[in-house]
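[step 3/7] fold_predict: job queued, chain A
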Amino acid sequence: MSTLQQGSQAELWQALIRESARRGSIALDEHEESYLGFVLIRYQSDTQFAAHTLALDWLRAHEEARHARADLLRDVGDRCLLLAGLFPQQAERRRVSLDYFVTLGRGAYAGVAECARAGYATLFEQLARAFLRLVDVLDGLRPQAAPRLLAIAPSPGTRRH
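[step 4/7] structure written:
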Protein backbone atom coordinates (compact mmCIF):
# COMPACT_ATOMS: atom_id res chain seq x y z
CA MET A 1 0.00 0.00 0.00
CA SER A 2 1.39 3.46 -0.90
CA THR A 3 1.80 6.31 1.54
CA LEU A 4 -1.13 8.08 -0.14
CA GLN A 5 -3.45 5.20 0.76
CA GLN A 6 -2.55 5.09 4.45
CA GLY A 7 -3.14 7.55 7.25
CA SER A 8 -5.86 9.92 8.37
CA GLN A 9 -7.96 11.93 5.99
CA ALA A 10 -5.95 15.06 6.81
CA GLU A 11 -2.67 13.24 6.19
CA LEU A 12 -3.90 11.96 2.83
CA TRP A 13 -4.97 15.40 1.65
CA GLN A 14 -1.72 16.98 2.90
CA ALA A 15 0.30 14.37 1.01
CA LEU A 16 -1.68 15.05 -2.18
CA ILE A 17 -1.25 18.81 -1.75
CA ARG A 18 2.50 18.53 -1.16
CA GLU A 19 2.94 16.23 -4.15
CA SER A 20 0.95 18.53 -6.44
CA ALA A 21 2.91 21.58 -5.26
CA ARG A 22 6.19 19.73 -5.76
CA ARG A 23 5.24 18.58 -9.29
CA GLY A 24 4.18 22.10 -10.21
CA SER A 25 7.16 23.78 -8.51
CA ILE A 26 4.68 25.82 -6.46
CA ALA A 27 5.86 27.10 -3.10
CA LEU A 28 3.20 26.99 -0.39
CA ASP A 29 3.96 27.87 3.18
CA GLU A 30 2.65 25.86 6.12
CA HIS A 31 -0.43 28.07 6.60
CA GLU A 32 -1.45 27.91 2.93
CA GLU A 33 -0.90 24.16 2.77
CA SER A 34 -2.84 23.56 5.98
CA TYR A 35 -5.72 25.77 4.94
CA LEU A 36 -5.99 24.05 1.58
CA GLY A 37 -6.19 20.68 3.35
CA PHE A 38 -8.84 22.07 5.68
CA VAL A 39 -10.95 23.24 2.71
CA LEU A 40 -10.72 19.86 0.99
CA ILE A 41 -11.74 17.99 4.13
CA ARG A 42 -14.53 20.45 4.89
CA TYR A 43 -16.14 20.26 1.46
CA GLN A 44 -15.50 16.68 0.40
CA SER A 45 -18.92 15.55 1.62
CA ASP A 46 -20.89 18.76 1.01
CA THR A 47 -23.67 17.54 -1.25
CA GLN A 48 -25.00 21.12 -1.62
CA PHE A 49 -21.69 22.48 -2.93
CA ALA A 50 -22.93 23.00 -6.49
CA ALA A 51 -26.26 24.46 -5.41
CA HIS A 52 -24.77 27.80 -4.37
CA THR A 53 -25.12 30.96 -6.41
CA LEU A 54 -21.82 32.54 -5.47
CA ALA A 55 -22.62 36.14 -6.37
CA LEU A 56 -25.80 36.01 -4.28
CA ASP A 57 -23.91 34.40 -1.41
CA TRP A 58 -21.37 37.23 -1.62
CA LEU A 59 -24.13 39.86 -1.55
CA ARG A 60 -25.89 38.15 1.37
CA ALA A 61 -22.62 38.08 3.29
CA HIS A 62 -22.38 41.87 3.05
CA GLU A 63 -25.79 42.21 4.69
CA GLU A 64 -24.52 40.48 7.84
CA ALA A 65 -22.73 41.72 10.93
CA ARG A 66 -18.95 41.57 11.01
CA HIS A 67 -18.28 37.99 12.28
CA ALA A 68 -21.13 36.39 10.33
CA ARG A 69 -19.94 38.28 7.24
CA ALA A 70 -16.43 36.87 7.68
CA ASP A 71 -17.77 33.29 7.86
CA LEU A 72 -20.00 33.71 4.82
CA LEU A 73 -17.26 35.37 2.78
CA ARG A 74 -14.87 32.57 3.76
CA ASP A 75 -17.40 30.09 2.37
CA VAL A 76 -17.66 32.01 -0.91
CA GLY A 77 -13.87 32.14 -1.18
CA ASP A 78 -13.54 28.44 -0.43
CA ARG A 79 -16.14 27.47 -3.03
CA CYS A 80 -14.51 29.72 -5.64
CA LEU A 81 -11.14 28.16 -4.85
CA LEU A 82 -12.48 24.64 -5.32
CA LEU A 83 -14.38 25.51 -8.50
CA ALA A 84 -11.39 27.28 -10.07
CA GLY A 85 -8.91 24.57 -9.11
CA LEU A 86 -10.86 21.32 -9.25
CA PHE A 87 -13.85 22.06 -11.48
CA PRO A 88 -12.68 24.69 -13.99
CA GLN A 89 -15.16 23.35 -16.55
CA GLN A 90 -17.87 24.91 -14.38
CA ALA A 91 -16.87 28.37 -15.61
CA GLU A 92 -18.01 27.51 -19.12
CA ARG A 93 -21.10 25.68 -17.87
CA ARG A 94 -22.03 28.67 -15.73
CA ARG A 95 -21.26 31.04 -18.62
CA VAL A 96 -18.52 32.94 -16.82
CA SER A 97 -14.77 33.05 -17.23
CA LEU A 98 -12.47 31.11 -14.92
CA ASP A 99 -11.21 34.53 -13.83
CA TYR A 100 -14.69 35.15 -12.39
CA PHE A 101 -14.09 32.46 -9.75
CA VAL A 102 -10.56 33.73 -9.10
CA THR A 103 -11.61 37.37 -8.75
CA LEU A 104 -14.66 36.61 -6.61
CA GLY A 105 -12.73 34.17 -4.41
CA ARG A 106 -9.76 36.46 -3.94
CA GLY A 107 -12.14 39.32 -3.12
CA ALA A 108 -14.05 37.17 -0.65
CA TYR A 109 -10.85 36.25 1.19
CA ALA A 110 -9.81 39.93 1.23
CA GLY A 111 -13.24 40.72 2.67
CA VAL A 112 -12.69 38.17 5.44
CA ALA A 113 -9.40 39.89 6.23
CA GLU A 114 -11.17 43.25 6.52
CA CYS A 115 -13.71 42.11 9.10
CA ALA A 116 -11.87 39.38 11.03
CA ARG A 117 -9.69 39.45 14.12
CA ALA A 118 -5.97 40.09 13.72
CA GLY A 119 -4.63 36.51 13.34
CA TYR A 120 -7.49 35.41 11.14
CA ALA A 121 -7.21 38.63 9.11
CA THR A 122 -3.51 38.00 8.48
CA LEU A 123 -4.20 34.46 7.25
CA PHE A 124 -6.90 35.60 4.84
CA GLU A 125 -4.80 38.48 3.50
CA GLN A 126 -2.17 35.85 2.75
CA LEU A 127 -4.73 33.49 1.16
CA ALA A 128 -6.07 36.30 -1.03
CA ARG A 129 -2.53 37.01 -2.29
CA ALA A 130 -1.82 33.27 -2.80
CA PHE A 131 -5.16 32.47 -4.44
CA LEU A 132 -3.76 31.67 -7.90
CA ARG A 133 -1.03 29.44 -6.44
CA LEU A 134 -3.67 27.57 -4.44
CA VAL A 135 -5.76 27.14 -7.60
CA ASP A 136 -2.69 25.80 -9.41
CA VAL A 137 -2.04 23.24 -6.65
CA LEU A 138 -5.66 22.09 -6.78
CA ASP A 139 -5.48 21.85 -10.56
CA GLY A 140 -2.41 19.63 -10.20
CA LEU A 141 -4.11 17.26 -7.80
CA ARG A 142 -7.38 17.05 -9.74
CA PRO A 143 -6.76 13.50 -11.06
CA GLN A 144 -6.02 12.15 -7.57
CA ALA A 145 -8.72 14.21 -5.85
CA ALA A 146 -11.60 13.39 -8.20
CA PRO A 147 -12.51 10.02 -6.63
CA ARG A 148 -12.52 11.58 -3.15
CA LEU A 149 -14.64 14.55 -4.24
CA LEU A 150 -17.45 12.88 -6.14
CA ALA A 151 -19.99 14.07 -3.56
CA ILE A 152 -19.28 17.73 -4.32
CA ALA A 153 -18.66 17.44 -8.05
CA PRO A 154 -21.07 19.84 -9.74
CA SER A 155 -23.47 18.11 -12.06
CA PRO A 156 -23.18 18.88 -15.78
CA GLY A 157 -26.46 20.80 -15.79
CA THR A 158 -25.50 23.17 -12.97
CA ARG A 159 -25.37 26.77 -14.20
CA ARG A 160 -25.37 28.84 -11.04
CA HIS A 161 -22.75 31.52 -10.37
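[step 5/7] annotate
The helical segments are 9-23, 30-43, 54-61, 66-86, 89-93, 98-115, 118-129, 131-145.
The two ends are 40 Å apart (CA to CA).
exit 0
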